[in-house]
Design a protein that fits this description.
heterodimer; A: about 375 residues; mainly alpha; ABC transporter involved in vitamin B12 uptake, BtuC; two-stranded antiparallel ribbon; two-stranded antiparallel sheet; B: about 120 residues; alpha+beta; Immunoglobulin-like; four-stranded mixed β-sheet; four-stranded antiparallel β-sheet; 1 helix; elongated
Chain lengths: ~375, ~120
């Protein structure tokens, strides 16, 4: 019983520590419960799709996919085109998704191939891959659009005649999803359609894990060599997991930006990978295990920190900036800690396996 | 062969869906004017596609944005005899065309003008 409790504590140490900190910080912040609940509803609907897109590569043993920024870039390209063509409303969102799909699939395939060449170092490779594709994205958006790719909307083009402006006003699709079906629960406003879409993705993930492909991914995640011996096309399945993650991230970025209503052309996608990964890790996920409760719980905890830290910092030390620094320190500290723990666990497992093999060999020798 | 056919089908369906979304979601600018040849009401009111009512003063011009192809405009004004009138008209938008509606002439045939959009690159 004590062992079970200890195991639970070790496995959930990150969310427990964050929860304790939040419980202490909420009264200090002076923010009302109602305000916090409304903020969490809106932030859950905004970020869930992106964070949930991280689960499938973890199942396939590829760790936390920092490469979701590739999907985010695809989503942003879709949004740039619909803003240029002046497509409004739900049709605009659907068309942005449609445009981003082939781009996300292509980027996912490229990403999957690269990650297959860097087995065991997928996370760092996906970070660097994100930087590389970001360069290509900037080249296309800054020089290609208006030059090679014809653009007609002068509001989004730089005054020199080519390249996209730093900020794009997404007024044509601003909160279209969130406002199309709204339910009032007491004093809270719930964006029902967005929540339903996120619910559908959760069902998809649960269903997907039970399919043949999902089981194959699980087998690869547990042991790649055994999966290969069992006749599973390891490389192809790993590529597919990255493609699915990238496509989901592109849709997630569109949902995220329609809620915000403004797109920062050259920066919006950069932070997405770090923020989503920090959220899922704070929810108790690891580089080897992630679930839907980890994702949703993590978003609540991470974003509560976002809302509370500046206010708590201001109340405690008279400076909101200190609270913000503290939040940044915790967020990135959690990522670093999770990655170190992951590597440590892997080394421990390898050590244990080596010891086991040695024992088998020694006992075999004696016989 | 079956896989290629299925994939081609999906790609074609996506292209058609994209075209449909482009046409039905495209926003068009419509210019609404209150300037008649013989008589111009002091104030006129119009409702575009069932949205909120907008007031337009005499000899003024307004720009509105509408989405899709088929539209209706409901115009309310007082005629020269002081009788309140309400007229509903239907119109279509076209790609690359400029739509101008004159609410003062809504009862005549020349209430709607469609012109080509000027390209500045020429």
């Amino acid at each position: 019983m004590a062992n079970k409790g200890k195991k639970f504590l070790i496995n959930n140490i990150v969310p427990i520590v964050i929860l304790i900190m939040l419980v202490m910080a909420i009264p200090m912040s002076g923010l009302s419960g109602g305000y916090l609940v409304q903020e969490m509803i809106s932030r859950l609907s905004r970020n869930s799709f992106l964070v949930l897109s991280l689960i499938i590569p973890v199942v396939a043993g590829m760790g936390l996919n920092f490469g979701i920024v590739l999907g985010a870039m695809a989503g942003q390209l879709g949004l740039i085109f619909i803003t240029d063509w002046r497509i409004a409303g739900m049709e605009g969102i659907a068309l942005a998704v449609l445009i981003s799909l082939p781009i996300a699939i292509l980027l996912g395939i490229i990403g999957g191939y690269i990650l297959n060449r860097a087995k065991g170092r997928e996370m760092i490779t996906s970070i660097i891959m994100g930087f590389f594709i970001n360069g290509v994205y900037q080249l296309i958006v800054l020089y290609g659009m208006g030059n090679i790719i014809p653009m007609t909307n002068k509001k989004i083009i730089l005054s020199r005649g080519y390249g996209i402006r730093n900020a794009i006003d997404l007024k044509n699709i601003r909160q279209v999803l969130d406002r199309s079906m709204v339910v009032k629960v007491g004093e809270f406003t719930v964006p029902l359609l967005t929540i339903l879409i996120i619910g559908a993705l959760c069902f998809f993930i649960v269903w997907f894990r039970k399919t043949k492909l999902g089981q194959d991914m699980r087998a690869i995640g547990q042991d790649m060599e055994i999966a290969k011996s069992a006749g599973i096309a390891v490389e192809k399945t790993r590529i597919l997991s990255i493609v699915i993650s990238t496509v989901l991230a592109s849709i997630g970025q569109i949902i995220f930006l329609q809620n915000i209503g403004t797109m920062n052309t050259y920066n919006s996608h950069e932070q997405i990978g770090m923020f989503s990964i920090a959220a899922i890790l704070i929810g108790g996920a690891t580089a080897a295990k992630a679930s839907i409760p980890n994702a949703l719980g993590g978003i609540i905890l991470f974003h509560l920190m976002f809302v509370i830290s500046p206010r708590a910092g201001k109340e405690l030390v008279g400076s909101a900036q200190i609270g913000e620094f503290f939040r940044v320190f915790i967020s990135y500290g959690v990522i670093a800690l999770a990655l170190v723990l992951h590597q440590w666990r892997r080394e421990q497992e390898n050590k244990a396996e080596r010891k086991k093999m040695m024992e088998i060999q020694l006992s075999g020798g004696e016989e | 062969m079956k896989t290629i056919a299925a994939r081609t089908g999906v790609i074609l369906a996506m292209i058609f869906l994209g075209i449909f979304l482009f046409i039905s979601g495209k926003e068009h600018a419509v210019f609404i004017e209150n300037k008649g040849e013989k008589y111009t009401p002091k104030n006129a009111y119009y409702i575009l596609d069932g949205k909120e009512e907008v007031k337009i003063k005499k000899k003024k011009k307004k720009r509105e944005y509408i989405k899709g192809v088929n539209h209706t405009i409901e115009v309310r004004f007082k005629d020269a005899n002081g009788v309140e009138k309400k007229i509903v008209k239907e119109f279509k938008t076209k790609m690359g065309k400029k739509i101008m509606i004159n609410v003062a002439m809504i009862e005549s045939d020349s209430w709607l003008k469609i012109e080509d959009l000027k390209s500045k690159k020429k």
